[in-house]
Amino acid sequence: MIRPVAIAVVMVGLWQAAAPPPALETFVEAASTDERTAKAALAHIATGWKDSYAAMLVDMARLMRGPRRSRQEADESLPVVDDERGSSIPERPLGQAPDLSDRGSPIRRRLVAFLEKQTDRRFGDDLNAWRDWMWKLPYDPHPEYAVFKGLVYGQIDPRLRAFFPPGVRAAIRLDEIDWGGVPVNGIPPLRGPKVVPAGEATYLKDSNLVFGLVVNGQARAYPKRILAWHEMATDRVGGVDLTIVYCTLCGTVIPFESQNAGRSFRFGTSGLLYRSNKLMFDEGTNSLWSTFEGIPVVGVLVGSGVRLQAHPVVTTTWKEWRTEHPDTSVLSLDTGHKRDYAEGAAYREYFANDRLMFRVSKTDARLRNKAEVLVMQLRDTTEPDRRVPVALDSRFLEKHPVYTLTAASARFVVVTTKSGANRVYRADETFPEQPAGSTIVDLSGQAWRVTESALVLERDLATRRPRIAAQRAFWFGWYAQFPDTTLIK
């Protein structure tokens, strides 16, 4: 016999499934300062509740003052930066400093209590725990969740709404997009930055880290001490327009061509993150782009097939880069912005520990969070549309300065200098273990010159093995984006 209670439960479930989702205004009213309005809104949300709606409540609570925290937690704040208009951006959401004396916003407490009642979870005010839980759920967002996201973030900066118009296409989970603590272009990109010859860069010490690239024979260095404050530079090198993106949180620099299929893009910093990875945007369509892949992930360009061409880059010391490329140019300290451009000044505390500033849905304990890895996305020779993510532990490469690997149905060789600079080449040959120098020798005894663009056979300079795009990253940042990655350690 079927019990009446069981029938009632089934009927309620069917009714909820058929009921239209609560209007966005109802969720907004749930955060009202008027208690009666808020309670009525929450009661209405409860009648058509889905666990996936938790993301909307967490998004609102995220921007409200939390309860008293420890002094250590309060000191772990985002860096203060200036936007392009010169205004000061606060360390905490909505200008609120860490509060160590009360239980936080009563509206936030109300939203959290409602979450606990609806989900039967007891995470309290731990928004990270709520995120961990909801990210494990099947992705079934409110049909207007994107618009809601724009409404919420629009309270921080009205320009953020443009990224979430009605009906916007998305290739990623919108509930994993988080605000990074700054408005649009709040971390100002360098536009056509001033450069100087190597001999005039007296501000650089030999040990300072730079990101070096060569395009059509022209060498340029971007010091970490400058780029870390701007996270993006739009530049022209070797006759090619480039967008050099530096995600400080995930520790990676990638130079992308700013054109694709005859179309030029001007990029900016959205102020938003996806799995702790910077999301840039193009000013033409306001589409959000993955800075790891160079593809649009939210906006009208999603599904268009647009993919930016990445160029090889090397992380090395100023001394090594200058020695190898005496004709290099390098960024000038005259950036037009006031910053402490001393080595290590930007994000000093973040780089010095293994803690994350923003939650990610996936981590992997095989390496420390911020262990540096050399990463690449290899196009499979047997399936051109398939890309294979690969990561190599930098400590492993230091012990194996010339390392041959097979991946994506092809063979590659990684050459690592004494300073830790990594370069990857596509090679049909196998290279035995040996010190890395200006030349390396394959198993047949043939010598190859190591250049920025290719391995060049000494006895036949027309025979070349092309260099491929690869860059350094923090392990947690790469794994969060590509959990199916092959790790070599």
Q: Can you describe this structure?
A:
The protein is α+β, with helices and mostly antiparallel strands. The protein folds into three domains: 15-163, no CATH class; 190-352, no CATH class; 372-488, Rieske Iron-sulfur Protein. The chain is 22% helix and 26% strand. It has 13 helices and 27 strands. The chain has helices at 4-18, 24-29, 35-47, 54-62, 71-75, 106-119, 127-135, 145-154, 224-227, 318-324, 348-352, 394-399, 475-481, and strands at 177-179, 190-191, 195-197, 209-215, 218-223, 232-237, 240-247, 252-257, 259-260, 263-264, 267-274, 277-282, 288-290, 295-298, 314-317, 329-331, 372-379, 387-393, 402-407, 410-416, 422-426, 439-441, 447-450, 454-457, 464-468, 471-474, 486-488. A seven-stranded antiparallel β-sheet has the order 19-20-21-25-24-23-22, with no helix packed on it. Helix 4 (54-62) runs antiparallel to helix 6 and helix 4 (54-62) packs antiparallel against helix 7 (127-135). It is elongated.
Specify the biggest β-sheet.
7 strands, antiparallel
**Helical segment tally?**
13
Uncertain regions spanning at least 5 consecutive residues: 1-16, 70-101
Give the % helix.
10-25%
Would you tell me the structural class of the helices and strands?
alpha+beta
Overall geometry: elongated
Q: What order do the strands of the largest sheet run in, or round the barrel if closed? A: 19-20-21-25-24-23-22
Radius of gyration: 25 Å
Question: Which labels suit this protein?
Answer:
489 residues, alpha+beta, 3 domains, disordered N terminus
Short description:
This protein has 489 residues and is α+β, with helices and mostly antiparallel strands. The chain has helices at 4-18, 24-29, 35-47, 54-62, 71-75, 106-119, 127-135, 145-154, 224-227, 318-324, 348-352, 394-399, 475-481, and strands at 177-179, 190-191, 195-197, 209-215, 218-223, 232-237, 240-247, 252-257, 259-260, 263-264, 267-274, 277-282, 288-290, 295-298, 314-317, 329-331, 372-379, 387-393, 402-407, 410-416, 422-426, 439-441, 447-450, 454-457, 464-468, 471-474, 486-488. A 7-stranded antiparallel beta sheet has the order 19-20-21-25-24-23-22, with no helix packed on it. A 5-stranded antiparallel beta sheet has the order 1-11-12-13-14, with no helix packed on it.
